[in-house]
Write a structure and sequence with these properties.
Radius of gyration: 23 Å
Oligomer: single chain
CATH topology of the largest domain: Naphthalene 1,2-dioxygenase Alpha Subunit, Chain A, domain 1
Largest sheet: 8 strands, mixed
Number of strands: 19
Distance between the termini: 55 Å
Number of helices: 11
Structural class: alpha+beta
Shape: globular
Length: 425
């Protein structure tokens, strides 16, 4: 249980708040490169700030305030030029740092423009995503987490705006036991309601859970019914990468990064970044574009009934549980048990990192040394507890953001079929 004050400390993310200042020390994905190949501008809400992402005529990205300083019109309609974004109303132009560089109607020689600026933040591309940094200088490096830079992979990403605070999404990742109930028992009920009891999957009961702190965050471990501490689920586990990333997957060849980016105190931009790696001997074509697509947020239909078709997969089920706690969960009313040890550990880590920035230190995962940022290998299970070759399921079942909306379904199925053939000799 947290006090009202402690809950506010961990959930408020706007400018000037303690958690907002901590989260501003990190790079966050705000868009897909593919989006900005199609559209010149995109509205971005992050950490309580309303911004516009744009690509200028030279192909460079900029992220600036969404409102012109002149007459307060929206810059989402701005005109991209060689070196900035021009307001459509009176032609004031802003560069990538948010500085006004032209005021067409002002007298020649006027220095007025030198006094005008709006917000402007660094952006970088990596792995098909566009990352933004809203924190203080010097600007750190964009972390090269393994899935973003590994060779021999196909990638795609789905995003959802979830109407709740980011902490509800992250704490779910420190809660292994929910897997057997939400993704097991409730999942069986969902497919029953859908009239597909044949799609029920086995419920894996947890016999033991454990957590350990490592260089980049927290490792989550489990022993399930019929397993042992010799299984990779316990020996390796998979990580929560501080402050807001879950790395997961059925195996090393089928892995995911989930980013939970606070838009404001009551909305989270959730990005599921999927990688498919069929393995050695299988030629993976170079991706010219990493698909980036919207995934519906599950809710009630027009009759006030659950949309079961959006709940037959882990992502949909998790999303529902996150936001039905309320826009901001009231942790002063919660009652935590021994199985909630991971959540308690995560909250402790958040407070420790808050203390570090108050002392003027970098929190963990703020990376400044290029030599340490070539390829950051994150620990993960090499084998799923289910054992054996993982049959790819992209039939709309189990993988809500991939199976239902995947742009790579046929291509991935073909590559994994080739990989399976090779593995069988």
């Amino acid at each position: 249980m947290l006090s009202k004050e402690e809950n506010e400390l961990l959930t408020q993310v706007g400018p000037g708040t303690a958690m907002g200042e901590l989260l501003r020390r990190y790079w966050h994905p705000i868009a897909g490169v593919a989006e900005m190949q199609q559209y010149p501008t995109k509205a971005v809400k992050i950490l309580g700030e309303s911004l516009v992402l744009y690509r200028d005529r030279k192909g460079r990205l900029g992220l600036i305030g969404d409102t012109c300083a002149h007459r307060r019109v929206s810059m989402i309609y701005g005109i991209p030029e060689e070196d900035g974004l021009r307001c459509p109303y009176h032609g004031w132009k802003y560069n990538r740092e948010g500085r006004c560089t032209e005021m067409p109607a002002e007298p020649p020689g006027s220095t007025f423009k030198e006094k005008i600026s709006i917000a402007g933040y660094p952006v970088e591309e990596l792995g098909g995503l566009i990352f933004a940094y809203l924190g203080p200088k010097p600007v750190p490096l964009v972390p090269h987490w393994d899935l973003l830079v590994t060779d021999g992979a196909l990638r795609e990403a789905g995003w959802t705006v979830i109407p709740c605070n980011w902490m509800q999404c992250m704490e779910n990742s420190l809660d292994p036991v929910h897997v057997e109930w939400l993704h097991g028992v409730f999942d069986s009920y969902v497919v029953e309601r859908m009239g597909r009891p044949d799609l029920k999957r086995k419920v894996f009961r947890h016999e033991k859970i454990g957590f350990s702190v490592f260089e980049h965050g927290i490792i989550k471990r489990r022993v399930v019914e019929g397993g042992s501490e010799q299984d990779d689920d316990w020996k390796a586990g998979h990580p929560i990468v501080f402050p807001n990333i879950l790395r997961s997957g059925l195996s090393a060849s089928d892995a995911t990064l989930q980013y939970r980016i606070p838009m404001d105190d009551t909305h989270t931009y959730h990005v599921v970044y999927k990688t498919w790696m069929p393995g050695e001997g299988v030629s993976v074509p170079k991706q010219e574009k990493v698909p980036y697509f919207a995934v519906p947020c599950p809710g009630l239909d027009e009759n006030g009934q659950p949309q079961w078709e959006h709940l037959d997969n882990n992502n949909g089920q998790d999303t529902l549980m996150w936001y039905t706690q309320g826009a901001i969960a009231d942790r002063s009313q919660e009652r935590l048990g021994e199985s909630d040890a991971g959540i308690i550990l995560y909250r402790k880590m958040l407070k420790e990192q808050l203390d570090k920035i108050q002392r003027g230190e970098d929190p963990i995962n703020v990376i400044r040394d290029p030599a340490k940022n070539v390829y950051i290998n994150l620990p993960h299970e090499e084998k799923s507890r289910r054992g054996g070759y993982q049959k790819l399921q992209t039939d709309g079942r189990r993988r809500g953001n991939i199976g239902k909306y995947s742009h790579l379904k046929d291509q991935v199925e073909s590559l994994f079929a080739e990989a399976k053939k090779r593995s069988q000799g």
